[in-house]
Amino acid sequence: MSSSSIMDRLAILADAAKYDASCASSGTARRNSLGGKGIGSTEGMGICHAYAPDGRCISLLKILLTNHCIFDCHYCVNRKSSNTRRARFTPQEVADLTISFYRRNYIEGLFLSSGIVKSSNHTMEQMVECARILREEHEFRGYIHLKTIPEADAELVHRAGLFADRVSINVELPTDRGLARLAPDKDARQIEGAMNRTSTDIAAARDSRRRFRHAPRFAPAGQSTQMIVGADRASDADIVHRASGLYTQFGLRRVYYSAFSPIPDASAVLPLKRPPLVREHRLYQSDWLIRFYGFRAAEVAEATDDKGNLPLDIDPKLAWALKFRETFPLDVNRAPRELLYRVPGLGVTAVDRIVAARRHRTLRLEDVARLTVSLAKVRPFICTADWRPTRLTDRADLRSLLAPRAEQLELFAA
Amino acid sequence: MMPTPAAARARYAVALPRPDDFAFWRDRARLLIQCAIPPEDVSWIEPGAPGDLFAAQALPPAPPAPVREVRASRRFLQLAGNAALHSDPARFALLYRLLWRMQEHDRLLEDKADSDVRQLAELDKAVRRDSHKMHAFVRFRRIAPREAGERERYVAWFEPDHHIVRANAGFFQRRFAGMAWSILTPRGSLHWDGETLVEGPPAQRGDAPSGDAMEDLWRTYYASIFNPARLKTRAMTSEMPRKYWKNLPEASIIPDLVAGAQAREAQMIASGGPAFEGRPRSLDAIGAAIEGCRACPIGCQDGRAVRGEGPGAARLMIVGEQPGDCEERAGRPFVGPAGQLLDRHMASAGLSRERAYLTNAVKHFKHTLRGKRRIHQTPGAKEIDTCRWWLEAERDVVKPRLVLALGASAARAILGRTVSIVRARGAPIDLDDGSELWITAHPSYLLRLDGAAAREQAALFDRDLSAVRRRLGEIAA
């Protein structure tokens, strides 16, 4: 047991947690602390209390309970054979730290994960105990995200859902083969089994709340998962298919992609090169296409190259549009909403505005300019009352006209 | 009362009791519409703002019969209630113009391409963003109870852009119900004791505590959760603009984190890639390279680098400390107050600025923000030593016969050690490349003095410059 200061241990255990991409604190039930003794509220929208110089938002206190681990997953910095510094917190210490930070308005709540110590059940128990102290002893009504351990007892995972707003289980790798090779102690069926039980629990709790007002809530912000990108040979098409399967099968709120980062003391089984950061970004964009723009996974896959990877220089929607040019140009004054979603450069908000505005006037190019972010990007794909892209959609060099200028992205991203 | 004919149209002025009093605006706007007073005849005056209150005609006490129904959609009231909190003095006029037009055209708001509607949306968006940033960036500091039985209190200082403080009281009340807290701002303050909310007058930063023991732990967390392998400072500053930094405890370590990450990257590239390339060989190449230099925390701030100026084969090189606010804006060295003073002394000593090469020991402007002002900070020894690489590259290209260092920072940049100006001035120091170094005070030092001390130092400065001119003459001869 380490006896070093809270500050040293916080540094180690926050550092170990930064490879988890999720920091969302939104989409949970509305709660507040009025009339109670404690503090905390959730009002639908999450709040980013700070941003780190890596551009990521800091919304939750994201730490591990411990980074000791009996597993040996090759992509993980905390694996048994890694030679990293170890530390552990007690559940009470994490709960107190969360409350101290929350009182000063640094955070929205806690995202607790852990390496596996002693056994999966022991670890899960400790994490649930931390959430219990927060909810019952501190009367904390802010956000709690617990990472659950698929190997732990179903009963313990269920208790986690009763205290937490969101629970998550990482599928870790997009293919079963990759999982077997890189995470020898994990089992894809076990992970899916746990996800399935959680999604059933969420559905059951939602159903009983419809009938009984005081039925206990169960993970009101749903469940999410994370995949490591670039550690195995899975292509973007594989990943998009897998993600889309997870969304439909388990009703996940989010699938997070984490570009495999070169971790100190890397294992020899891993590729030496890290994937370009922009690949992760393209995957998130395709994730958005599926969730908000009505694309099917197969359609996103159509935008990939012969190896099944999305182009890195342009976004997947533009790639799709360039491949299916016969769909364009679309008349913004008449095209249905679902088709407007497919125009590169038109987001959901812009489409909403166009649909609302065209009830009142016939849109001209200048109107579209006012309703969108970048007219240059949209123009080759639309018609307005005063504009038709006469030759643009047939031009062979359209891609080079629309792709952003090559930047030296990778020089310093390595 | 009927509106008078256009030629002698009366103007009506409405003075708002508070800048965020939407309910008051709503009452008056209803009455004005019922009296059929068009938007161009009404001026809305905020408290403290100048207005033609006395020149204007009083509002009619009641609408004429039959009382007209005033129509406004729920969506409009929602947007307007928010936009009314904006600090734009024209906001109430805009809202009234929209309400007026809406009486004829009840679906006006749906026309997102209309310029008034767009402006409303922009005001609303700015206020929502400001409120959101308030929810995010208020930082409480704990005040321990002074005597037994007293509660601990949490106090925050925040500077909003708009009149949003009262409107956001509910958020903090719901969130921190079980805690005694105060939020102090220049636009008013809020105090909650766990049961009731009290509004207070505007406060000052000094009224809030200056620190909290937890902040070290928070900074530790902030530094540890940051992934140095992926630096995206622009993404950070777009969501957490610099104007908020001075009230965020974690922001103080950002420059160090950025510099550390870049040093790490540079190290990775240097160790993996080809050998580190040599110094740039022309003044233009140096000028371009310093722009991208992130080797120290100053370079990682937003400002631009200031390159040296003067003939490429000047016999005299003058080295200052670092660009100041004016220099950084102009992109030229020695153009601010200290530079102008230097010009005057050089002219009286008979030295030509045009024939000298002027540069600085440190190429970026090191400063802290105080409100909107950028306050000069002296560069540290480590930063000067880092930037020495560039100064040496410049000396290598220009090959001056004589280098004049203004102040201790410049002297350190050339000698690599700190010297005392008082002891080193007035005599040349031989440098390795055959040139000689003269050291004198920095002109900004003269600017800070007054009275007898100023005259004494100015005389010493003149003496040093004259010595330099004589020495240049000897070298040339």
Automatic annotation (TrEMBL), chain A:
Residues 59-286 form the Elp3/MiaA/NifB-like radical SAM core domain. The keyword S-adenosyl-L-methionine applies. SUPFAM superfamilies: Radical SAM enzymes (SSF102114), RuvA domain 2-like (SSF47781). Keywords: Iron, Iron-sulfur, Metal-binding, S-adenosyl-L-methionine. It comes from the Bacteria. InterPro entries: Aldolase_TIM (IPR013785), DNA_rSAM_put (IPR023874), Elp3/MiaA/NifB-like_rSAM (IPR006638), Endo/Exo/Phosphatase_dom_1 (IPR051675), rSAM (IPR007197), rSAM_sf (IPR058240), RuvA_2-like (IPR010994). The keyword Ubl conjugation does not apply. Its cofactor is [4Fe-4S] cluster. This is DNA modification/repair radical SAM protein.
